[in-house]
Amino acid sequence: MKKSMKLISNRALFYLAILPVSCGIFAWQGWSWWSWVSGPLVSATSSTQSPEANAVTIKIPVGTYGQQIGEDLEAASIIRSATAWNLWVKWLSLQNSDLEFKAGTYKLSPTEPLSAIADQILEGDVVKLSYVIREGWSIKQMAEYLEAQGFFPAVDFIAATKNIPYEKFPWLPSNIPHLEGYLFPDTYKIVAENTTPEGIINQMLGQFERIALPVYQKNQDNTTKLSLHEWVTLGSIVEKEAVVAEERGLISGVFNNRLEKGMRLGADPTVEYGLGIRQTKDQPLTYSQIETPSPYNTYMNTGLPPTAIASPGLASLEATLSPEDTEYLYFMARYDGTHIFSRTAAEHEAAIAEVERMLSSQ
């Protein structure tokens, strides 16, 4: 009896002794498994490509459950285990009952651990596309550029600019035929899902609202007494004429003087816009083109054209509100970006002759 009790006691002591060891082994095995399944599928050190090159594009539709996301990530070879994903999501849910994965298009790299991939989707760090709209571009030029970027056909963008979104942007002037001049030139990033003509138009109008509109609203008592539409229209002409920044205020001053005196603006870019052409040093405007009737021909029509001819940048818009005080009424392009400014028609004719001599001697 005593031997039996002693044997039981020894066995109990043995099991008690190995229990911590067994727990340690199981814990180590569990941790090893978790470290493996939750770690990067592709080692950043062993990969010959950058994390960006390894990235996989995947789209998560609205309403996709967390479990489905895990299965999709495993199928796309972004994570090692959908089971590990589900465990991690449950752990996160215990800490935050409002856990919600954001729909969208993502670029996810298998060189990242499971937790980092989950964080990216939880934060909505979706793919964003960049595009650059240059100062002085017309709607047509924007459309051609956006088509070249692979966003959508140029004709779709041009058509969309004729639908004026007064509901979202009630400050837009009434009865304008299109949005020429109001699509603010800037560098943009946009969520991939929003790369529609309407999405990009709304982004550019929003930028005009944030940057340009307050400038006009603070200077509504400007000396030129321009309406919003007149401001944008004249600003677009200044933008197209002023190649050198130092001349911008002076060019604005010339146009302001001519408007005050009831003189025609005589701006080449308005003729080019009306005819859908672009003059160059080798092919300047002809007298026939200048004499071609058009609502935009400021050699034939007094005042401003019916709309802007391009998207003016902030500097041109500011110069239009604060034209330089000058006696000049004319300027002639040297075709190097600078101009010869004149006070009288005779001085202007002499400037034209000077430029023609310079071009013929080259």
Defining key terms:
14 helices; Dna Ligase, domain 1; 362 residues; elongated; mainly alpha; 3 domains; 8% strand; two-stranded antiparallel sheet; two-stranded antiparallel ribbon
What oligomeric arrangement do these chains adopt? single chain
N-end to C-end Cα span: 123 Å
Strand segment tally: 6
Strand content: 5-15%
Helix/strand structural class:
mainly alpha
Shape: elongated
- Bin the helical content: 40-55%
Q: Which stretches are low in confidence, meaning pLDDT under 50 for 5 or more residues running?
A: none
pLDDT averaged residue by residue: 88
Order of helices and strands: HHEHHEHEHHEHHHHHHEEH
The side-by-side strand order for the widest beta sheet comes to: 1-2
Number of domains: 3
As a whole number of angstroms, the C-alpha radius of gyration is 34 Å
Question: Biggest sheet, in brief?
Answer: 2 strands, antiparallel
